[in-house]
Amino acid sequence: MHPPLSDAAAPEALSQLQPQPRSPGDLFVSFTWLALQGFGGVLAIVQREMVEKKKWLTPEQFLEDWAVAQVMPGPNVINLGLMIGDRYFGLRGALAAVAGMLTIPLVVILALAVLYAHYAGNPQVAAALRGMGAVSGGLIAATGIKLIPQLRKHPLGFPVCLAFMALVFAAIAVFKVPLGWVLLVVGGVACVWTWKRIAP
């Protein structure tokens, strides 16, 4: 039986036990695969690949990193790729992850743009795109529901987290408050409140 880890040694030992990318090339291939699966949005795909399959992130780490990625300027998944790549291989890793997210999908998007310009007036094409939008919304909602259990470990407590979720949903979906103001006000209150809870 292994002796218990000291407080100082525990984080380092856990990071060694957690799977991680083998090289920047592994990051490039993994994020390329993510991008090629992410029709209409990659949140659901990223959570499944990074947390459930590759286990590069724990559910708690994914929730924390995704929260940071959302409040930073730019596309959320690009921000997340930058953070994951930098964590393991510094600047090389960050560039490899972003290149994986953009290179092949850029070629595909350009080809699809040419096709769409040619067939945009076709009613069947418009109907198919609306159907994809509905599926994409379902994928994002399903991923959000899967992340809810991790909120039970939040310093503010599960009921308070659910209240913040309901407040954000109402502000954006019902009252049409711009996302920037919601992040600034509601996100700011949540950050300050959490900081006061965990501050020594």
Structural class: mainly alpha
Tell me the series of helices and strands, N- to C-terminal: HHHHHHHH
User: How would you sum up the major sheet?
Assistant: none
Mean pLDDT: 84
Record field, number of beta strands: 0
Walk me through what this model shows.
With 200 residues, the chain is mainly alpha-helical. The protein has two domains: 16-148, no CATH class; 154-200. The chain has helices at residues 10-17, 24-37, 43-53, 59-71, 76-119, 123-147, 158-174, 179-198. Helix 2 (24-37) crosses helix 5 (76-119). The longest helix is centred in the middle third of the chain and has 44 residues, at 76-119. The model is unreliable at 1-14 (pLDDT under 50).
Summary of the model, kept short:
It is built from eight helices and no strands.
Give the topology, please.
Blueprint: H1 10-17, H2 24-37, H3 43-53, H4 59-71, H5 76-119, H6 123-147, H7 158-174, H8 179-198
Helix pairs in contact: 2-5, 4-5, 7-8
